[in-house]
Amino acid sequence: MKEIRVEMGADVPFHNNVDYCVGTGRMGLALHKEYLDQLALVQKTIGFSYIRGHGLFCDDMAIYHEYEEDGVRKAEYNFTYLDRVFDSYLDLGIRPFLELGFMPDKMASGTQTQFYWKGNVTPPKEYDWWCHLVQATLRHLMARYGEDEVLSWPIEVWNEPNLTGFWEHADMEEYFKLYERTAYAVKEVHEDLQVGGPAICGGSDEKWMKGFLTHCREKKLPLDFISRHHYTIELPKPDGHYGYTELYKSEYAFSTLRDCRKIIESYEEFKNLPFYITEFNSAYIPNAPIHDTNENAAYLARMLSEIGDYCTGYSYWTFGDVFEEQGVPFTPFHGGFGLVANGGITKPTFWTFAFFKKLKGRCLYRDEHVVVVQKDDGTICGVAWNLCRETGCEEWECKLCLPVDQAEYCCVKKTVDEMVCNPLKAWHDLGEPANPGREQIELISEAAKPLVTTEHLVPADGTLDITLSAGKNGVVYFEISEAVIKSDRGFVYGRTE
Questions:
Q1: Which of 24, 216, 379, 436 has the fewest beta carbons under 10 Å from its own?
Q2: What share of the chain is helix, strand, coil (3-state, %, to 5)?
Q3: Cα 439 to Cα 441: distance, rounded to the nearest angstrom
Q4: pLDDT 10s digits, 402-437
Q5: 3-class DSSP state of 402
């Protein structure tokens, strides 16, 4: 068993921005009740600051329209759905992280689309009209929600233009044009609006990140933040409705972020700009069984323990499984990105995020298996995890040794592993119903809760020893606080006679 001696005065670097931002499917899905129910659940427990998603300008949001008057083509804008969506976000305490895309069909230069819902991914046929759309939308938002509020919303230009599926021909020079025209259009509305990019998928840093930053430097373009995505799997292997994946080793996954960071830091003008990972997860497909598993929860615990070392903020893709990139899911567990499965069932990874949300304060200890934090009120808490593919252990244990000055303590543990918090297994054991009834959903939801245990502890020689045990792909949250027992007159715990 590993023994860890925690120094109470330590101040270990730990950049925990777990609640900065979360991803969502296309904006239009926010008109669905199930979508808002899932987001409310996530916000109640985790409370993200921002939400980012695709499809702001897609036709299902009905913003952009054209008409002809006296032989002249004119544009008009309808913000009915946009207001409904953003009102819902703000009511739930979450702000938009604006992604400008995709292209309204009537404005598009081509017919290439992406996803089941056919988001157009071609450049505008007339850049002036695109810029007017962006400006009209921003001015409307500022009028409705207030200038100071909208100035706090980052604005990202497009999504993954380095991929042919998201930008016609992955034309880098055309994206640079889009960014340049859009950034200037944004700044014309208000010079303090935050605009950035290039929102590329990982793997193209040498070409795209260098190219983008060089272009911005040479043209002296507005650039308030830099963005990139981070997924950590090999090429998926399709089988039926699913794609099976092999996870990167954690160290390799982090090395890709370090390499990107080095590129950014090589530019004196940009090295101190905020760097956002505006999408991250294990798999980049919405039908990867890994997403529904305890292994994903343990893997993401490892990611969350270190990802903040390389960026300003990061956004998990996505909060819920109301999501339609490949169409409407056939089953509640279908390998979706979400922290919450359809039916409002929390996945194991949901609890990883909920646990890390609690790790606010001064970090006392951190390694590849455990993080220990002291809160402002003196409470000690932490998260330990056992990613079996990297530990090789069915059961991982360690002993924390804490120097303390009180006489009695309570240790609360919340455990998520394949035995005690595995809703996927419960659904499987029920016969994998494609459309489970209410009673089945309630049962699966019960199986999706962490196991809570408590222990009353008395230090020995000024040291409090805590044993942490994480089962296969387990994630364990622990919290240690002073708890002096003050029994009622005549009461003896455990006595019945």
A1: 379
A2: 35, 25, 40
A3: 5
A4: 998 888 999 999 999 999 999 999 999 999 999 999
A5: strand
pLDDT at 1: 78
The answer to whether 452 and 413 are in contact (CB under 8 A) is yes
Q: What is the DSSP letter of 310?
A: S
The residue among 302, 279, 292, 264 whose CA lies nearest residue 163 is: 279
Do 471 and 417 touch, CB atoms closer than 8 A? yes
Terminus-to-terminus CA distance in the chain, angstroms?
40
Q: Which residues of the chain are under the pLDDT cut of 70?
A: none
What pTM, to 2 d.p., does this model score? 0.95
Which residue ranges form the domains of the chain, and what is each CATH number?
Answer: 2-10+361-482 (2.60.40.1500), 21-357 (3.20.20.80)
Which DSSP string corresponds to 229-286? EEE-B---EEETTEEE--BPPHHHHHHHHHHHHHHHHT-TTTTTS-EEEEEEES-SST
**414: β partners:** 452, 477
**61-75 pLDDT tens trace:** 999 999 999 999 999
Q: Phi then psi for 209, rounded to 5 degrees? A: -65, -45
Contact 57, 123 (CB under 8 A): no
Question: In this structure, what DSSP letter does residue 61 have?
Answer: G
Q: What whole-number distance in Å separates Cα of residue 495 and Cα of residue 497?
A: 6
Question: Which of the residues are catalytic?
Answer: 160, 279
3 residue type, one letter = E
- Give Cα separations from 148 to 22, 189, 241, 283 (angstroms): 22, 13, 45, 36
